[in-house]
Amino acid sequence: MQAARWLRRNLFSSWGNTAITVTLGAIVVFAALPVLDWAFLNATWSGTRRADCSGEGACWVFVSSRLDQFLFGFYPEEERWRVVLAAALNIGAIVLLFVPPMSRRAGMALAGVPLAILAGWVLLHGGVFGLPLVETRQWGGMTLTLVITIGGLFAAFPLGVLLALGRRTSLPAIRAICIVFIEFWRGVPLITVLFMASVMLPLFLPEGASVDKLLRALIGVALFAAAYLAEVIRGGLQAVPRGQYEAAAALGLGYGRTMLHVVLPQALRHVIPGLANTAIALFKDTTLVLVIGLFDFLGIIQAALTDTEWLGLALEGYVFAAAVYWVLCFAMSRASRRVENQGVGGVA
Amino acid sequence: MTETAAVRVSGVHKWFGKLHVLDGIDLSVAEGERVVLCGPSGSGKSTLVRCINGLEAIDRGDIVVGGVALKEDRATLEQIRRSVGMVFQQFNLFPHMTVMENLCLAPIRAGGVSAAEAGEKARNYLERVHIPEQADKYPAQLSGGQQQRVAIARALCMEPRIMLFDEPTSALDPEMIKEVLDVIVELAEEGKTMICVTHEMGLARAMADRVVLLDEGRIVDAAPPEKFFTAPESERTRQFLSRILHHRESDD
After folding, report:
1. Residue A15: inside a domain, yes or no?
2. What is the pTM (predicted TM-score) of this model?
3. Maximum distance among all Cα pairs of chain B, rounded to whole angstroms
4. Does residue A147 fall inside a structural domain?
5. Residue of chain B with shortest Cα separation from A346
6. Nearest chain A Cα to B54, which residue?
7. Angle between helices A141-168 and A297-305 (to 10 degrees)
């Protein structure tokens, strides 16, 4: 009953609207049906080999048989629990960072999340506590994507905060350094940064010294993201009224404590959408590490496409990659909306 | 007099660009004295109180607060600000903190007080401003009058020797002005040194030991309230009072 009323009001309120509704509906049906047909109805879901696919619709066997590799890269099979544990630790820490009570947030941000990231790295890398060493060149797939995104973002965040504060300070030397840094990294494409990190950096290091390729990429990504975060956070700092600084100063709080307890909590709240935007952009940009020979989620799917047994399944591979990226980005976007709407005493 | 002065302002000048906002101010406020600063808008009264705790820098002259000469270096500023409480026109509560957190922040982070002691003190001062039941609310959940009383309690939690009020009732709806004025008068009766910028002549009458009139950056009159309001010596004071009274009548 209610549905019928809704339909009449929104879709069939006049002859013109009815015509538009019918036309658009027809287009949707004719465009969507073949897609549905290919992706679901005629698709092959079970099996282990190429021969299992009927050839009519999508061959999801390609994805299911290689899912482990897409997730873990070349990480040794018997050690994969370490990846799962590290992911659980990090995602858990990040979730705790964003769910109330707020009183826990500072502790999570300053200790919980950094510890989880450190523990994650130790778990993945091993070589201590009796964990066999798994070198970073064996990391790949979604594991690598998450390492670069989470590691890069959380390394970038404190730097971004410092750069944003530095850009607004009255000390000319610090301000100049921050502006030059931010504008340099913002002016360079990420792909260039990654090439620099992988090709140029070793040239500057002394003979024999080498820095892990993944670590180099991570540093590049972190510096790049820091410049963007700094500008987002600076916007938030500008939105905090002068009266807040004055009230803190009048109470005898110094610069550091004023920023930490009064200004930054408000500034960061103001820019949650911008921060989420940067996180989502970085998550997708990690696909660029392919150019320096790291196999992230997309990279490893692409590599699998060249397998002679599975030739010609590019569509399946890319559709799967797109679906996974979309789901994760959408989840991040929803999460940021939730955090935004957490009512904290009407902080707009 | 100068030895016991809580605040001594001598020969203070300040310019905002070309505007000469403070034009040679000399003012001494004794320990325990309650001074009301009034004057037309733009007369420099707010700027003067903001100079006393260093929120505005002065261009010439000296300010001594509790025996400490006001200087631009951070350590001196923070030392003086810890002993001078300030209440703003716009309350300036921290919107992301509960009332309790607003009150405890500075004592814990700047005053070196333990969390338990700060909490106890905060509850005590919330009683004094008559809103102990609002401790766990956020500022946006309170009325303007309640917010301003929280702001007063927040300043008191640092146990300042001097309280500065910068037009504490100007941003309030008329029906909330009284609850804030009552708190300020109660505070005045306890003998705390207070400097209050206000347009509320009723407040001046109720609490002031001395009313000081500023105009164009100069002190043009200073007298105890009964003399200031009933038998003003200066022509400028008479003008000011007649304008305020006239404004009041046309308001009603």
Report:
1. no
2. 0.83
3. 55
4. yes
5. B140
6. A250
7. 150
Q: Tell me the C-alpha distance between A20 and A54, whole Å.
A: 39
**Structural domain boundaries, residue A289:** 67-72+135-341
Q: What single DSSP character describes residue A108?
A: I
Q: What is the rounded end-to-end Cα distance, in angstroms, of chain A?
A: 38
User: Within a domain: residue A90?
Assistant: no
Q: Is the pLDDT of residue B129 over 60?
A: yes
Number of domains in chain A: 1
Per-residue burial over B206-234, b if 16 or more Cβ lie within 10 Å, else e, is bbbebbbbbbebbbbbbbebeebbeebee
| Residue A84 included in any domain | no
Q: Check CB contact under 8 Å for A254 and B110.
A: yes
C-alpha B43/C-alpha B46 separation (Å) is: 8
Q: Which residues of A are less than 8 Å from B93 in CB distance?
A: 247
Check if B110 contacts A (Cβ < 8 Å).
Answer: yes
Ranges of beta strands (E only) in B41-118 are 60-65, 68-69, 84-87
Q: CA A46, CA A65: separation in Å to the nearest integer?
A: 9
Which of these, B30, B67, B27, lies nearest to B49 by C-alpha position? B27
State the complex-level ipTM. Answer: 0.89
Distance of CA B113 to the CA centre of its chain: 24
CATH of region B5-251: 3.40.50.300
Q: Residue A345 corresponds to which tokens in the numbers above?
A: 């005493």
Q: Taking 50 as the threshold, does the pLDDT of residue A259 lie above it?
A: yes
Residue spans of the domains in chain B: they are 5-251
Report helix angle A61-72 to A80-98, nearest 10. Answer: 80
Tell how far CA B103 is from the center of its chain.
Answer: 18
Within 8 A of A242 by CB-CB distance, chain B residues are none
- What CATH number has the domain bearing residue A265? 1.10.3720.10
Q: Considering chain B, what percentage of its residues have pLDDT values greater than 90?
A: 48
